Structure formats: C-alpha cells, structure tokens
Amino acid sequence: MTPLSLVFAGSPSAAVPTLRALAAGPHTVRSVITRPAAPVGRRRVMTPTPVAQAALELGIAVRESARPQEIERELLAETVDLGVIVAYGALLREPVLSWPRLGWINLHFSLLPRWRGAAPVQHALIAGDDQTGATVFQLTPGMDDGDWYAQHRETVGGHVTAGELLTRLSESGAALVGSVVDSLARGDVRAHPQQGDVTFAPKLGREDGRLDWWQDASVVLARWRGVTPEPGAWTQTDDGLVVKLWELAAADDAVPMKPGELQVSGHRVLVGTATGALELDRVQPAGKQAMRAADWARGWGARAPRFS
Fold this sequence. Notes:
Helix content: 10-25%
Shape: elongated
Order of helices and strands: EHEEEHEHEEHEEHHEEEEEEH
Largest sheet: 7 strands, mixed
CATH topology of the largest domain: Rossmann fold
Number of domains: 2
Strand order of the largest sheet: 5-2-1-6-7-8-9
Number of helices: 7
Radius of gyration: 22 Å
Oligomer: single chain
Distance between the termini: 61 Å
CATH superfamily of the largest domain: Formyl transferase, N-terminal domain
C-alpha cells in the first residue's frame, strides 16, 4: 500500500476522532479546512472549532473558511491524493470537488439513503428508528447522494440521546473512514449505488425542541432524545415560564395524568402526556441554573404549574 496525502475538512467535535485516527495512521494529513472561530458562551469568547484545536495540537496546518471558494486558489496550488470530509458545515463545489486526485469521501452519520442532510442523528431518534449507523461515500454535487464504500450498522438503544449517539458514531465512524482510505490506497475498494427510500434530515431550530404534551408519551420522549443537547428540549408553563428539560424518562408505573399536568409523587416529578406520564429529572427554568426537578418543585408553592 502506498500512503496517500490527505486534506481533511470538518468543524465540530464529532469530526475530531476521524482527524485523530487519520493523523495516527500511515497516511499524511497535509492540511485541515474548518469553519472560522465563533463566539461561544455567555461572554461570547471567540473560539476555534474543535477540529481547528485538534489540528493545532497535531501540528497540522489549518485554513479557516466558511466558503471554500474563498480559499480556492491556495487549495488548488497544493497537490493531494484524497479529501476526507466530516461535518464541515459548508458545501464543496467545483473545482474544489475534483481537486484531490481521488476526489472526496464523506463520513455521514446515518445509513444512507435514509436521513440525508445536516441532522441525521437527531431525525433518526425523533422518528423512533431502532437501527442507525454511519456511511462513508463518494462526495458529489448532490446532497449526500454519492455511491457508498462502507457502512457501519448498530442498534440505537432505548435511552440514548442525540449527543450520546453522535459521540458513539463518531468513534466507530473514524475506524470506518480509516478502512476506506486504506482500501483506496490499495485500489481494492468497490463503490455501491445507494438503494432504498430516501429521507431527509434538515437542520433543527429552537422551535423543533418544543415538546407537545398532547402527543403520546413515546413520541414526546423520542423528540426529547432527538433534540438533546442540541437544539435543546424545552416547554412553557401556563404562566409563561420557559423551562429547558435536560433529563426526561419514562414513568410507566405512574397514575394517569392529563397532558401537561405536573405533580409530585414521592421523590419524583411527573408530567402527563396523551397516553401516560413521563418523569422529569433535571430542568432549567429561565434565568436559573439547571437543577433537579424535585428542587424546582419545592418552589412551586400552593399551586403546581402546568406545561402548556
């Protein structure tokens, strides 16, 4: 096997395991493309992306750009064999798309063609999928529609959140990318056309995190899992207080409750849905720090609020 020269494009923490795995392997990561530093936290401190920070630790040159065409000239001046992209956050277009000798491969966190788009893990959980995985495919101008080289499949698990599942898939996906890069270097990899029903996973916004207590308990819990930690699950009390919901669980042994009704049962705080109750564990009322739901309930006074 002749080692390849690589360029890596990625931005969030989910892309870091793949970058580290490639840097530790037999191939050479010549440079990294990532999105520019952005303000983070309440103090809005300008912070490089997790991929930029990892690349600097690894001694790899970093180019920051939200629009690859802005740095097109300097990219094309460099010779590389293969591009690897993981959640970069911007579309690659020609001539950058055809710049590496072998083109670009993309690690996508779904079993393509299911959940093409920006938020595959979140949508898989919201939809109640019991199987998911990761796919390495050839990048094309279309949205996640290229032929695939390898897939990893795994069971979702009944309690995992989107953040936890993405962390898990980012580790297994890193190994998957490494195997495909090695196969491309040997010239013994085979591409497969995507087959099956196509579904899409657009980026989620704040309103997607609002829970509807008039839905079935399983549907509410699935949405909570899919939007945790981003964009975040939330609801509103009947007096207008916004409450973030950091931890939520099934409560199959609870007595029947009306949708949105809140009550304390022993050491538990329960909320009703259309088909049963769920247990609130950790919440964050607007303007306060996250706290145990039981601590929040102690401040209710004579009348329990209600989720609208």
